[in-house]
């Protein structure tokens, strides 16, 4: 088991791909945060927007634990200007008190209040962040992920 875990949620695979690439660069484990609710199709999209906008509490079908970890990297798509309800459910389900928390998000237009909203529920805030706009179309994506992995390594080495 690695002492770093990348925990991601993803509806259409972009955040998943970025999370898996980052995990490989860090030699970290990767965990998918899975929701009970389906977000497929137009109805799924509309429900997802509404739940994110209202900050609705959702149920997860995956279970998570940060025992033995030194750091967690949260990876979320931006929904309605914030992190997904599943990411907030994840943060309610784990104890982040003794781990360094990093975050990255993927989006089409802007990251909005994603990192600010995450920091509001994290006692020690975020150590470093990365926003990736349309990562599937960004030729610099892997370079940005490599630089982010270096920042994470540097932050952990300085502890
Ligand atoms: C319900 C919903 C709401 C979204 N809201 C935003 C938004 O507020 N701003 C934005 O830039 N992109 C928004 N997007 C686009 C996604 O953040 C973007 O496509 C992301 O990279 C998808 O990641 P995924 O493939 O891992 O699901 C939204 C997508 C969905 C499904």
Walk me through the structure.
By secondary structure, the chain is of the alpha/beta class. It has one domain: Flavodoxin domain (Rossmann fold), CATH 3.40.50.360. It is 38% helix and 18% strand. It contains five helices and five strands. It has a five-stranded parallel beta sheet, with helices on one face. Helix 1 crosses helix 5. It is globular. The protein binds flavin mononucleotide.
Biggest β-sheet description: 5 strands, parallel
Q: Please, how many domains?
A: 1
Helix content: 25-40%
Q: What's the total count of β strands?
A: 5
Average pLDDT over all residues: 97
Side by side, the strands of the main sheet go 2-1-3-4-5
Give me the CATH fold name: Rossmann fold
Concise synopsis of the structure shown:
The protein has 159 residues and is of the alpha/beta class.
Task: Present the secondary structure layout.
Blueprint: E1 4-8, H1 14-26, E2 29-32, H2 41-54, E3 71-77, H3 85-93, E4 100-107, H4 114-120, E5 129-133, H5 141-157
Parallel strand pairs: 1-2, 1-3, 3-4, 4-5
The structure holds flavin mononucleotide.
Flavin mononucleotide is lined by residues 10-16, 45, 48-49, 77-81, 106-110, 112.
Essential attributes:
alpha/beta, 5 strands, Rossmann fold, 5-stranded parallel β-sheet, binds flavin mononucleotide
């Amino acid at each position: 088991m690695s002492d770093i875990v990348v925990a991601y949620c993803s509806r259409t695979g972009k955040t998943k791909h970025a999370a898996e690439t980052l995990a490989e660069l860090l030699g970290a484990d990767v965990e998918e945060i899975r929701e009970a609710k389906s977000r497929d199709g137009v109805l799924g999209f509309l429900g997802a927007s509404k739940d994110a906008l209202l900050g609705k509490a959702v149920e997860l079908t995956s279970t998570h634990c940060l025992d033995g970890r030194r750091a967690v990297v949260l990876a979320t798509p931006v929904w309605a200007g914030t992190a997904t309800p599943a990411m907030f459910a994840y943060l309610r389900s784990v104890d982040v008190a003794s781990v360094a928390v990093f975050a990255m998000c993927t989006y089409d237009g802007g990251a909005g209040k994603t990192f600010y909203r995450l920091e509001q529920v994290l006692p020690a805030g975020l150590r470093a962040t990365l926003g990736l706009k349309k990562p599937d179309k960004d030729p610099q994506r892997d370079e940005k992920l490599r630089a982010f992995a270096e920042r994470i390594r540097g932050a952990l080495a300085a502890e």
